[in-house]
Each structure stands twice: as C-alpha cells, then as structure tokens.
# Entry
Amino acid sequence: MSVPKRPTLVPANPNFSSGPCSKRPGWSLEGLSGVALGRSHRAKVNKVKLKAIIDRTRDILEVPDNYRIGIVPASDTGAVELAIWSLLGPRGVDILAWESFGKGWAFDVIEQLKIKDVRVLEADYGKLPNLYDVDFSRDVVFTWNGTTSGVAVPDGDWIQSERAGLTICDATSAVFAMELPWDKLDATPYFWQKVMGGEAAHGMIVLGPRAAERLESYTPVWPMPKIFRLTRSGKLMENIFEGNTINTPSMLAVEDALDSLIWAEKIGGLSSLKARTNENMAAITSWVEGTDNFSFLADEARFRSCTSVCLVITASWFVELSVDMKVLKTKQLVTLLDDEGVAYDIGSYADAPPGLRLWAGATVETSDLKALFPWLEWGLNRVSIMSTVFREERSNA
# Structure
C-alpha cells in the first residue's frame, strides 16, 4: 500500500499545547531583559511591576473599579482553591461539572471541605448540564470554559443578576478570549499560561464587592492555609490587591506576564485578542466541516470552546475500533506529528475521550493552524496504513 504524499508546508510555530500555551507572536528572551533578578519582590522596582500587572489587567479586561484584582500562589488551581476554601460554607453549593477540573472542584468541596449541602450538576464530556437548573440562592461553582472537554458556557444570560449566593467562576482558559460579564461573577480565578501564553506558578483572582463582603463577614470553620488567607482580623488585606503578594513570586514569570499584557495593548486590547481567537476557531470549523475524518467533541456549536478545541476522530476505520485501540491509535498519531515537528502536545486530556486538543487562543497564528490541517489528515492516513499492514502481517504469519 502506497504512503500518502507528505505535506510540504510546516507550521512556523508547532506549539498547540493547551497549557502552558504558545508564547505570543514575536516573543523572545530578549523581551524579558528588564527583569530585576536577585532583587526582593518587596523592592520598589518589583512592587511597581506587580502593580503594573494588576493595572494593565484591569484596563485590558475592562474590570470594574470596585472589583479587586490580586496575584495569588499556585496558578489557577491555587486561585480556585483559595476561592472555595475562603468563600464557601454559609450556604448550600451548586457545582457544575462537565469536565475534569469541574469534577475536581466538586471532589474538594465534598471530600475536603466536607460541606453537606452540595448539588453536583453533571454532564458528559462534550456537553453541558442544564444551566437553568442552577439555584442562585446557593453559592455556585463552575468553569466558564472546560479546557479538557472543549465546551464553554455560551454567555452569562443564565446567571441571575439578583442572587443571594456567590458565583465562583474558574475562567482560566476563557479570560482574555471570551466575553465575561463581570457584574455576574463574584470571584473569578485564572492564570497567565493560557490565552496570554505566560508562565505557570502564579494565579490571579478577580473579586467583586459581594465576595469581599463575604470574606469580611464570614470565617470558615476549617483551618485555613496561609497561602489562602485574604483577611486579617476580619478585614481584607488590601495590600494583596496592590501587588503585595501572599508569597514570593517569580519575577521572571512576572516580567513575562507583563510582556504579554503589553503585547495585548499594542495589538488593540481585548477586542483584538477575541478577534484573533475567533479567527482561529473559524479556520478550525471550516476545516472540520470539509473532512470526514475529524469532528468536534461538542455536538452543539454554541457550546464549543474557541480556545481549547477538542476533536474526535470519525474516520470509518477508526470508529469501528475498541476503546483501547482508539487510545493506542490516537497516541500513535500524536507521536507521529510530534516526531515530524509539526504539532506538539495535542493529545486529549487523560480523563477525556480519546482524541485531539488544539489550542487556538490569541497567541496562535491562524496560518499555523491552516498549515497543520493537512498534516492531521496525512498522519491519520499513516496510522491507518500501519494498522492495515500490521493486520496483514498477522494474518499471513
């Protein structure tokens, strides 16, 4: 059996990982030359940089003036845990779980915090639970964009403006790429390594006035780790929201985050970031609609993520395989494309159905995605041929 012709056009940047994500176009280490290494993060030069991240973030994301923005430890995981450990307890909790991280937050609330009155609204990968089943007299925990499932909530219309409970929204692969209704989000954790292509280790949290009021009026019954503490003697530690971080940050990561924010400003801010992301999603959609070999994990177009795009393989020979064989063949495809240097880290998340995951956030160039599509088709054909040859060799043995 002949081998299909190998594509000639190669993506200029083959980094399609969903985290850490591709650096911004034109990024280089020279762009971080202004970093003040070997200096205390309490030194004036570095306090200015930490505050600049907060101020530039507010401007780009158009965060209301009465919302607080803080840099916190342990990336998005730490930021989300900080929010749920600090804010949950006085009310019942509704948790939306349709992918790995939402299910993880549900586990922690139930098994670690031992909150008794918890409802988990679940859905399979590729789908959303009924958003209108949420009870906003309770506290609500949800991910805006399911990074491991390729499913995002379509908007904030389902969130009640007049609500008794708080909304805690893990927005890590949505912020800077999707429209977030700040007036409906009380605590919004995320981190730098997704849409902005920053480095890991540090998280961000945006706190609305209702979350701030909860922090000052309620003390959790469980012991609070130091890296989660936002209050002292019942009052918010306001210096955290001026860049006086809870623990020591990496100033190299801070410099890199500043670099990406400055880039975002130069290209036109939030509207340009969203436009770049949407252009990438449009290119993927056009390609998927023209092939029989790949499809979106999410059936409904309005629920599809435009950043962490999850695909399943629909080639006729593939769908007939057992689940174990699908996992094996998908890994072969991912490895083949990695070895060819055309696509790195595009396998689906370990807990998700076997398939591919392409990061399509604002730091990815549409031209690189378009160059990748023929390689995906070629690679799948190669994997198919290898399977056929293997079966023939076994039958002739």
